[in-house]
## 1
Amino acid sequence: MTKQPRAYGMNPDDIALGLDSASIRHDFVEKLFFELAKFPGVATRNDHYLALAYVVRDRLLHRWVRSARTFFEGEHRAVIYLSAEYLMGPQLGHNLMNLGIEQPVRDAMEELGLDLDELIEHEEEPGLGNGGLGRLAACFMDSLATLDMPAVGHGIRYEFGIFDQEIRDGWQVEKTDMWLRPGFPWEIRRYGIEHVVGFGGRTEHAVDDKGIPRARWIPERVVKGVPFDTPVLGYATGNANFLRLWRAEADQEFNLDAFQAGEYFGAVDAKIRSENITKILYPNDENPAGKQLRLEQQYFLVTCALQDCIRLMLQKTTIDEFPDKYAIQLNDTHPALAVTELMRLFVDVHGIDWDTAWDMTQRSLSYTNHTLMPEALETWALPLFSSLLPRHTEIVLEINRRFLDEVRKRYPGDEGRLSRMSLIDEGGEKSVRMAHLATVGGHAVNGVAALHSRLLRETVLRDFAEMYPERFTNVTNGVTPRRFIALSNPGLTSLITDVIGNGWLTDLERLHEIAPFAEDASFRQRFRQVKTANKERLARWLAATHGIGVDPSMLFDVQCKRIHEYKRQHLNLLHVAWLYDRILRGERDDVVPRTFLIAGKAAPAYRMAKLIIRLATAIGETIARDPLAREFLRVVFVPDFNVKNAQRIYPAADLSEQISTAGKEASGTGNMKLAMNGALTIGTLDGANVEIRDAVGPEDFFLFGMTADEVTETTRRGYDPRGVLARDPELAAILDQIRTGRFSPQQPDLFAPLVRSLEESDPFLVLAEFRTYVDCQRQVARRWNDTDSWTRGSIQNVASMGRFSSDRAIRDYAREIWKVERVAVETPGGSGRS
Ligand code: NBG
């Protein structure tokens, strides 16, 4: 036993840190000196940022520790969110807002001759995710904390997150993300916690002294997982949860034998190999299969998180209570190994019999599916899986054997169904189907929007939905209004508060109360002023950082999201090319001045996506050179779309492009963020667009395109894009212009592969929907010309976004899936709900 002092002579809770500007100023100078060994005069902006971050971090520790204590001491069920990705966004501004100390901090900085906005601006975000899925995890962490629900998010502390995107000669260039280089002051490393992670090797089977068969896994190599915690403050509550990110370290710093044999470099090899596991985030390339390191990452995350859960609970109770202590949510199939790992821990390590362990596993786990795209549904080749995880292979096969027995009993003689449902795909090279594993191993499966959940039940997991209908449910995604309204759009926030008072940021349905003000001309005017100011702010930033000039009086038409053929950025670009052509031909009657803002990263190996970016920049350059066209049109590709840049773009958008082929976008969340900031949507009936349109009303949503069922039917009948071109000579001419170098005169055949793909297969029905899209865009233009009508629609959009708060989504999960409740955290001095 380590010696514990009975008391330290003081209670940390009694150490009050001043929240006034004088105390903050004092502590800032102190941090600068004692933490960073810097003093005014030599300190850089990064030093100032770090010093301030430490000052702020000190001030959130009470909340964090008090919450942890409340949850630990009580009998509560906690949510464990397992996600391979988190896109947390910049922390400083957010934490200042949640602590409610922005003003004194601003004053303190000003008294020191510093500008708080510059320091906020300076922060680099941890880009530990690819896109919507990672940002959803971050929004959920925000809502869990705000709703006072005990939760820990477990993830991977990638040393290099998603690449930074630069545009050079019009092409995407990937730069290594260095988020840790300036220092990440928010995290705290928990020394003393570490978990051993095995890989490879073999298993042994024996009978123990009680006559029970026991399996033992003897891994070939082991690494250590060590945790780094980042606090997640709730808004308008004293509660704080945290994100626990795991880093891989070598189990022994040096392999001593090799070292003594004089092989110094060889000795360090093992260390390097271990640490590689958490080196880098995988970009979601077209085809993620076959990447051993990725499977290592997934297992590493899962075992660290689950061992940690068990470690904690065993301090108070026994292993059989695991399902009562934890509701574990699998964010997609990346952590689906939790099924086999829980079984291994229960059966092999804790000696629980298989049936009990299986019941405990199923009661603990639930799974969210985030895509129906076949290439994104994870499978792992069995040879790779079994060489890396021999014991888990035995467990999967045993789960599968028992599961298929059940299927056989339910559907005797239905061999087709057996092979469709098996956890192992036996067609060609055998592989493990992770979505099946996650579905069988948990008690709930959900899609992320009503349409997506229906399609999930009817297509990808149809047999499972038939067999276990009670397991399937929908939880439509949501986004946090704290970051995406309050922090991103302070102008709109204070306008809303002005008319409906405080409290709506934690009760977003109250936004309905602004709807009547759409009829109030002076409110409309103020609302427009806010939008204009946001557009001006974006314009200043574009000019200052990218040398791009835009005119805020134009309609800002925005599409920002990962670049993917199913999201159809090229449909957007065909519309631009069509407008350009009409301007050249002198047909300008219903063309309104527009700036198209396109942003998003393409996976480095996804060639077509990169070519789409090149087409955007090429069209942009061509138009910018044309003195006539540039009066009406601008195309700007905004580099490096990430959370920080998103926060600048959303508030400035007039029109939100949500134009994926129906049935392909599981939900979308940018659609919600843009509408919350007053953009009107032009979109298909896909993902959450369907529900957004229901909420907003058909008048204030520009709908076009086929339904998901019509898309399926069109493809089934044998869709021929050439037929479309034969019927639409105008579209054929535009494709011809692109093919023959109108936008790439130096290299006329640059876009030939893109045009060819559209003409020959067009898997996402771009050409099929071009005409209806363009017609819909004409309606957009007409509406834009009626400023008052546009503003009414814009207000109506904001007013209708209550449902799309991630608070609502988290309440749905808590009630339907997790069965967890709010736990009030005691906050002496009261920083409770306002
Ligand atoms: C993405 C979907 C989006 C959805 C987010 C969050 C993956 C695998 N899926 O439509 O494409 O909004 O998940 O649910 O990244």
## 2
Amino acid sequence: MTRKAGAELTVADGTAWEYAPAPESRDVVRIDAEYGLFLDGEFRPAADGTTFATINPATEEPLARVAEAGAADVEAAVKAARRAYKQVWRRMPGSERAKYLYRIARLLQERSREFAVLESLDNGKPIRESRDVDIPLAAAHFFYYAGWADKLEYAGFGPDPRPLGVAGQVIPWNFPLLMAAWKLAPALAAGNTCVLKPAETTPLTALLLAEVCQQAGLPPGVVNVLTGGGDTGAALVRQPGVDKIAFTGSTEVGKQIASVAAGTPVKLTLELGGKAANIVFDDAPVEQAIEGIVSGIFFNQGHVCCAGSRLLVQESVAEIVLDRLRRRLATLRLGDPLDKNTDIGAINSRPQLDKITELAAAGVAEGAERWSPPCQLPDRGYWFPPTVFTGVSQSHRIAREEIFGPVLSVLTFRTPEEAVAKANNTPYGLSAGVWTEKGSRILWLSQRLRAGVVWANTYNRFDPASPFGGYQESGYGREGGRHGLAAYLDV
Ligand code: NDP
């Protein structure tokens, strides 16, 4: 099979499909040359005037300059959030808070094309994913938690559950708007005010969400967005006056934050990395499982904390599963994230591409066999082809470390007990997948897998009503559902 420019695809058996370019228009979104911090209801430059560039990872073209919040801005934002908490938000009846959340949800829906294009430009993910997954799910989170805002006393946390106060929230770059929604919606519904720190490489949709908060008439200070890098995040989690820290990101930074919060009254939730097992039994519907394996690891270029990055396949069907998987991967289209036919977009940043490249090289050096479909990478931007490693052993780095890229490590097993032992042989514990037609086996496994989420005959399914979170080095606390409210209430 060969792949040519213009997304033309030719298959060895002579069948050919041609995909005309189908790019989404960039014109639906206005990108300013410079963006300020969103602090106390208005956009303003950083106190010391510092800015940084955010770029399009598919082209390396600069998109905008963005204010970098320093210590003075962090202090001002936390003070603004405290004022808004005391004077407005915690006094407001839940039914009134709900109206703001519903308004934000509706505005996200109305402006969804704008958000989708901006997300794909800033992050590199395919427009099909930002349009069909990230943005609708972000709106769904606001709708869902709007519904809880006036029912907190019926949520099972006692007759009068209280908010915590000011929440400092630090989020990563893999689902920029969606992670902002996961953090803000439950916090606001429960009556807290927020200071949100988006990732340095993907600040733009959080700033557009700030504009939506203004548009929804949200009182000043209830939501503040501080753009910046790791130093801004570190200053926020150390800032006196923060009552709750919510963090999603790497286990390494999560551990640093846990040590900052240790011994203080600050409440902490951590959603960290993962190295999930996606387990395929010999009685699984193969075609369905192939789609689940593909979406498990190649969705969002594998930049997913719960990605099914370890495929455990029963030895008796390994050959047929791998054969079909290779054929399926050869049909994936890699390229322009704004093209509606694209399956695999750009890697989010140069450092992330370097990390994926380094771990893939370690896989080869340790003796695993590497395979990718023939596929031409664009000349500019950050790209990595879909990659499968076979002959992987449990001690290999590619079987143990989070790669956070489009790289699948394949291991085999013979018995269900061996599958459980191998799946649980990880310091993480965020998610797992099981493919089998036996309901009893699904139940047996899900009781034994040490993972916060176990998907059965599906993968990477998300719903605002469903709790999500990990064990061990994948962190603690739950986001989503009724459990997600508990993280923002004094219970
Ligand atoms: P980080 O954990 O560094 O980033 C997550 C967020 O924390 C970002 O907003 C980051 O800011 C901020 N941050 C960085 N340092 C600190 C600090 N000391 N105190 C407070 N906040 C901080 O992840 P990276 O982006 O560096 O990615 C590294 C690896 O982490 C990836 O390769 C991947 O394996 C894993 N990862 C896991 C994620 C998950 O959802 N489980 C998400 C993202 C990454 P900034 O980005 O601006 O530096």
